[in-house]
């Protein structure tokens, strides 16, 4: 099935790159597979990529998310999709996008933390009522639930799994997807540095990509991964301060610059710690190894969370 999906995506990428089916004309550019996972397969042809989304993608929510990415109100924030005639292959939705240069993982000192923060602030300030809808919920909390399910299925007997479960039990219902988020803003839903590209590449502005989890939710969720990394000792204090400072300077609404930001960030950061630790155990089990140093850092953070009182469901008012 994956071979058939990749073949279909190669044709879609050629179409998107050359404005129409059959117009490649032997341009001399080969297709390359950029990602091949259950939740997305991505194939590149020259200046375009085609993506087959997860097989369990909700069709209505997917259409709204793609329409939002194409909306002019999101220009300069989200990468906009390219026209494409075929919208599905082998039961999976297909989209096409301009190719952009990703963040270079070999150069962490050049990571665009401030640019990411400004993009998030701009995204969170967009009025959801002015966008195509109905907007689905941002899928941040749902990803915590999915990560735990994967851990239980693939690494549930590992001794550290109990630590992750105990930390999860300290989360309020909304952070486990069991209740609506306390605040409602347009959110990316799965923010990390892999969700940015430069376009036009190279030297162009950074843009957010991957709208599979975009929707209405608590905007602190989009800050939660770097917050969790900082709390676990994986992100230097200075980088965290630069990121948060850029977000507040750009009038991001997730935190109040006059108050302690952890009033808002505490619960989402705990939830992302649980998610990260659960997936770390899944990866370690798949690779038949024990958790590495970074894995142990987030598992240790889960151990600290598990020792805290159960967090109340209520949060600070909007």
Automatic annotation (TrEMBL):
Question: Which top-rank group of organisms is this from?
Answer: Bacteria
Q: What is this protein called?
A: Aminoglycoside phosphotransferase family protein
Q: Which residues form the Aminoglycoside phosphotransferase domain?
A: 53-263
Gene3D superfamilies hit by this protein: 3.90.1200.10
What Pfam families would the database entry show?
APH
């Amino acid at each position: 099935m994956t071979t058939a999906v990749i073949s279909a995506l190669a044709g879609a990428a050629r179409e998107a790159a050359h404005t129409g089916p059959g117009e490649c004309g032997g341009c001399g550019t080969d297709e390359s597979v950029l990602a091949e996972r259950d939740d997305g397969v991505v194939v590149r042809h020259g200046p375009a990529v085609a993506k087959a989304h997860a097989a369990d993608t909700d069709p209505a929510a997917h259409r709204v998310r793609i329409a939002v990415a194409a909306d002019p109100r999101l220009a300069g924030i989200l990468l906009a999709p390219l026209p494409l005639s075929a919208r599905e292959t082998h039961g999976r939705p297909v989209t096409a996008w301009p190719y952009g240069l990703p963040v270079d993982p070999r150069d962490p000192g050049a990571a665009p933390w401030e640019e990411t923060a400004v993009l998030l602030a701009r995204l969170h300030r967009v009025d959801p009522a002015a966008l195509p809808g109905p907007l689905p919920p941002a899928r941040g909390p749902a990803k915590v639930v999915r990560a735990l399910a994967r851990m239980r299925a693939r690494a549930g007997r590992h001794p550290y799994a109990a630590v992750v479960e105990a930390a999860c039990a300290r989360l309020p219902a909304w952070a486990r997807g069991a209740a609506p988020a306390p605040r409602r803003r347009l959110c990316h839903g799965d923010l990390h540095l892999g969700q940015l590209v430069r376009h036009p590449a190279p030297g162009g502005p950074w843009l957010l990509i991957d709208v599979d989890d975009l929707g209405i939710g608590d905007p602190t969720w989009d800050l939660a991964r770097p917050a969790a990394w900082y709390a676990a000792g994986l992100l230097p204090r200075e980088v965290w301060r630069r990121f948060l400072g850029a977000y507040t300077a750009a009038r991001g609404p997730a935190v109040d610059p006059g108050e302690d930001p952890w009033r808002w960030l505490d619960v989402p950061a705990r939830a992302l710690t649980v998610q990260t630790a659960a997936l770390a155990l899944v990866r370690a089990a798949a690779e038949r190894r024990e958790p590495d140093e970074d894995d142990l850092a987030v598992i240790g953070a889960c151990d600290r969370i598990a020792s805290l009182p159960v967090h109340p469901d209520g949060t600070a008012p909007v």
